[in-house]
Specification:
416 residues; alpha/beta; 15 strands
């Protein structure tokens, strides 16, 4: 496995690093912030906060002087000329994209700034978009699963993920007469919240334990339960954005039967806080969770996601999840031991600061790859043509059937 182990030079060039990312209290931005914190110890780091979801201008800790707020466009699209002016103004030497779905902004930078090193934090990709990662000079994979897809790239590096073990640490738990399971729904329905509730309600778990669900979206918009119903069954829902270190102190065990994750960020945080983890027996979660501080839930079935993401969703098995939860209820001494094991594992293996030398050396020493201009221009033309086709199809679908037929006939005549 290609793990970068370069050494920091005593007189390293003072690089200007730019990170293009979403920027507010959510998983992808937390990853970008973690890279910023490491890199800023050696370089000047600038944040280009693209739109697509929302901005964190009013959220504590997200609106520093290093942040430039991009225009709010659909998805991960970026105003290329606004981005170009930002690159020129800050004299960016290395540009690092996080969760960049659309390739056109990358191609634009590749063509206009051929000497700027382009890097990518690998998270989202489909079978058809894997070849586009050749336009980056280097790739960072924080999981073995991502690395398995891109290891043939000449500058692809596996950088094991971690967390801030000083910020995320055990604290005085909330007093409770029974074990408390904590679950983070975040901003997504793919975290296994539905499976967890279904499993929790079908037996005697509510009589012997509590369940706390933290959500950044309106839980009751997606689940047809009343607060009274949940309260009667020992379930508490907390709907608000909570900055790090979050609400892990409210639980004894972190239960996370997610169907799909690029990283599983909260698993690292929970372990650092001294919580054993129950999660799906699927990568990347099973790359770190072990039996001495967690339980893995068997996968009942796998199925593709609506957007064609490269890896399938993995739905956990109800019986396996219920068994894992009962394990901690019935074994309180083992639970306390696994809490200590979780924290000790995090201290020894998940301290993100230990990756500082590796990451800084990588950004300094990777080289700009020679990508022919003709190859870039051909890909730009192809992407623009695909966008035009998708836009035309979306427009046609809004028309009544008789008009769809009319334009369809015109199109077929033009093809003959």
């Amino acid at each position: 496995m290609h793990i970068f182990r370069g050494k920091i030079e005593e007189r390293r060039k003072a690089l200007n690093v730019g990170i293009v990312t979403t920027w507010f209290e959510r998983g992808g931005a937390i990853v970008s912030r973690a890279y910023r914190d490491l890199l800023s110890k050696q370089f000047r780091v600038f944040i280009y906060a693209r739109g697509g979801e929302r901005y964190g201008q009013k959220e504590e800790g997200w609106n520093g002087s290093e942040v430039t707020w991009g225009k709010s466009l659909f998805g991960t699209n970026i105003d290329a000329y606004h981005l170009a002016r930002w690159i020129e103004r800050n004299q960016i030497d290395v540009l690092f994209f996080n969760e960049q779905h659309q390739i056109l902004p990358v191609l634009f930078v590749r063509k206009r700034f051929p000497r700027v090193k382009l890097g990518c934090y690998v998270d989202f990709y489909t079978e058809s978009t894997v070849p586009d990662f050749e336009f980056y000079d280097f790739l960072l994979c924080n999981t073995k699963r991502h690395y398995s897809v891109f290891s043939s790239h000449p500058q692809c590096f596996y950088v094991p993920w971690g967390t801030d073990v000083e910020l995320f640490r055990p604290s005085q738990p909330v007093a409770s007469r029974m074990p408390t399971f904590f679950h983070s729904m975040g901003m997504s329905l793919r975290k296994g919240t539905g499976l967890l509730l279904e499993t929790f309600f079908r037996g005697d778990l509510p009589r012997e334990s509590r369940l706390i669900i933290h959500s950044q979206v309106d839980f009751f918009r997606y689940f047809d339960y009343s607060r009274e119903f949940l309260s009667q069954r020992n379930v508490e829902v907390i709907h608000k954005t909570v900055p790090a270190p979050g609400l892990y102190h409210m639980g004894d065990v972190y239960v996370y039967p997610t169907t799909l994750d690029g990283l599983g960020l909260t698993v690292f945080e929970a372990l650092a806080c001294g919580l054993p983890v129950i999660c799906t027996d699927e990568a990347p979660m099973n790359e770190i969770v072990r039996s001495d501080f967690g339980r893995l839930v068997e996968v009942a079935r796998r199925f593709s996601r609506y957007d064609g993401f490269y890896w399938p969703k993995a739905l956990g098995d109800n019986d396996s999840l219920e068994e894992a939860m009962w394990f901690y209820i019935r074994n309180p001494s083992t639970l306390e031991k696994q809490k200590r094991n979780a924290r000790e594992f995090a201290l020894q293996n998940l301290d993100w600061k230990q990756a500082g030398e590796q990451v800084c050396s990588l950004f300094s020493e990777v080289s700009v790859r020679d990508v022919p201009l003709g190859q870039i221009e051909r890909r730009i033309r192809k992407e623009k043509e695909e966008l035009r086709k998708r836009a035309s199809l979306a427009f046609l679908n809004l028309l009544p059937p008789w008009l769809q037929g009319f334009f369809g006939n015109l199109y077929r005549r033009g093809r003959t």
